[in-house]
Design a protein that fits this description.
Largest sheet: none
Number of helices: 11
Shape: globular
Order of helices and strands: HHHHHHHHHHH
Number of domains: 1
Distance between the termini: 43 Å
Strand content: under 5%
């Protein structure tokens, strides 16, 4: 590669850090490598947004510098909650504060990933419902598909946690009543899965809208603990370790455990400290993106008349 070729690569990298034309073998960009890697079946738009946050100045500087202070505040909140576990109960204020903070400081990529997550959660539960073989009315959840940051004020975060716990409880009650376990249906129904490309609002791009999603999550976690009763926060924290359970349910429906290789959140029978909730929330988001992406891959294979298992060579 000539010097002029190197200069051209730098120009492409400066214009778009995820443009393969910006690749310089003498100075390979780790974020470009992760973006081009397809070992995880994650939506390209979501992956690009996640990696843009990972390489941002807020993640590289604000996150590590502020984290000790956030952790200290979190410890103070835990002591306060030990003294007063039920009060204050300011769920409405919590959701309004999240909306305000994301609108004022969240990057467009951060805001997109957060809204997108609720759509993914809704579609994953709908997939399980449709293929579980139990009466749908026996498993009650509320679909969450916010299109604007303002929509988050409608109790979306708390309802997200209620949905998953209510689903697990009611699904297993229904299965036990039938005396059976989840098994593969005659034909897996993928109809509820979409590319998650709705008409999201145009996100703010002001001078302060540069906070990446991991930094935002780290800041909001102790606030969540402060403004919610202790039991609500504990439930929200424990919900982050349910990815493996949902993955097992999907495996029983598919008759394959291939996707379990990229489900990394730990099992809830061995609970982790709520002080780790910020990191686990990021892993939860990644797991959901990967499971949803894999199911969309299987949907496309089914529509093409191919076997669902990508490892199969059968026609």
């Amino acid at each position: 590669m000539s010097l002029s070729d190197g200069a051209t690569a730098r120009d492409h990298r400066k214009a778009d850090p995820f443009d393969p034309r910006g690749y310089d073998p003498r100075d390979p960009d780790p974020w470009l490598a992760l973006y081009l890697d397809h070992s995880l079946p994650i939506d390209p738009q979501a992956k690009k947004a996640l990696l843009a946050g990972a390489r941002s100045w807020s993640r590289r500087w604000l996150f590590p510098v502020s984290r000790p202070l956030v952790l200290l505040f979190f410890c103070v909140v835990k002591v306060l909650r030990a003294i007063s576990p039920r009060h204050p109960n300011l769920n409405g204020l919590l959701h309004k504060t999240i909306h305000w903070g994301l609108r004022a400081f969240g990057s467009p990529q951060c805001n997109m990933l957060i809204l997108r997550h609720f759509h993914i959660g809704t579609e994953l539960l709908a997939f399980l419902k449709a293929n579980a073989g139990v009466p749908i009315d026996s498993v009650q959840t509320i679909p969450l598909k916010p299109l604007t940051l303002k929509d988050l004020e409608d109790n979306v975060f708390l309802q997200h946690d209620l949905n998953i716990f209510n689903f697990i409880i009611e699904l297993n009650i229904a299965l036990q009543a039938q005396g059976r376990e989840l098994t593969p249906p005659a034909r897996v129904d993928f109809s509820m899965l979409t590319d998650i490309d709705p008409a999201f609002e145009t996100f703010p791009t002001g001078p302060l809208n540069h906070i990446d999603i991991q930094t935002a999550v780290e800041f909001y976690t102790p606030l969540y603990a402060l403004l919610l009763p202790r039991e609500d926060f504990m439930r929200a924290s424990h919900s982050l370790q349910l990815d493996e359970i949902v993955g097992i349910y999907i495996a029983r429906i598919l008759g394959s455990d291939y996707h379990m290789h990229f489900v990394k959140n730990g099992h809830p029978l061995v609970t982790l400290s709520t002080l780790q909730a910020g990191f686990r929330l990021m892993m939860h988001g990644l797991d959901c993106e990967a499971m949803h992406g894999y199911l969309r891959l299987l949907k496309s294979r089914q529509e093409a008349g191919l076997p669902l298992d990508p490892r199969s060579t059968a026609s």
